[in-house]
Design goal:
It contains five helices and five strands, in the order E-E-E-H-H-H-E-E-H-H. With 168 residues, it is mainly alpha-helical. The chain has two domains: 96 residues, no CATH class; 37 residues, no CATH class.
């Protein structure tokens, strides 16, 4: 057992960082978490994941629930129904409790001009916030290092004759 003065202690500190995605495709989650088309709404520029319970209750209270169910059953676009029920700014509509039906943290830029047919949700913490697991970050760092080493292998192959290791 190490002496207390030489033991390493984990600091009681953590940092929260904000990252911006620069890749049009990033999915961290499982294949099981594929969303049905009625679980999200897409416009030309954004994709929205509504609070399903709040949406259904509010549509019911406003007399639009049966129209919503019919559109879902027929796999029709519901954007026009949302405009009729909530107005042109349906994205900011609120339920009776004052909560947004389409929370800002569950909407995202749409990276393609094509219609999305396969959408999978990302991993979220217990508070419903998106997060990237450490294993995914580790994999991304490994990939970046491997790419760099392969792209610049001539820099590192010269080390072989001097006793270094090669990455070829």
């Amino acid at each position: 057992m190490a002496a207390p003065e030489t033991a390493l202690y984990k600091p009681e500190v953590y940092e929260i960082k904000r990252i911006q995605l620069t890749s049009p495709i990033l999915h961290i989650g499982s294949a099981v978490s594929k969303l049905s088309p009625f679980e999200y709404v897409q416009t030309g520029k954004r994709v929205y994941l509504p609070n399903q319970e709040a949406l259904a209750k509010t549509l019911y209270q406003r007399g639009w629930l049966q129209d919503y169910i019919r559109k879902i059953e027929n796999r029709e676009d519901i954007t026009s129904l949302l405009e009729d029920a909530f107005g042109n700014s349906w994205q900011t509509a609120k339920d009776l409790n004052g909560e947004r039906i389409f929370p800002q943290q569950t909407s995202s830029l749409k990276w393609t001009t094509q219609k999305i047919t396969d959408l999978r949700s990302m991993i979220r913490n217990g508070m419903g916030q998106l997060y990237i697991p450490g294993s995914s970050i580790k994999g991304a760092i490994r990939t970046a290092i491997a790419y760099h080493l392969l792209k610049h292998k001539e820099r590192y192959q010269g080390n072989r004759s001097r006793g270094g290791t090669s990455c070829a």
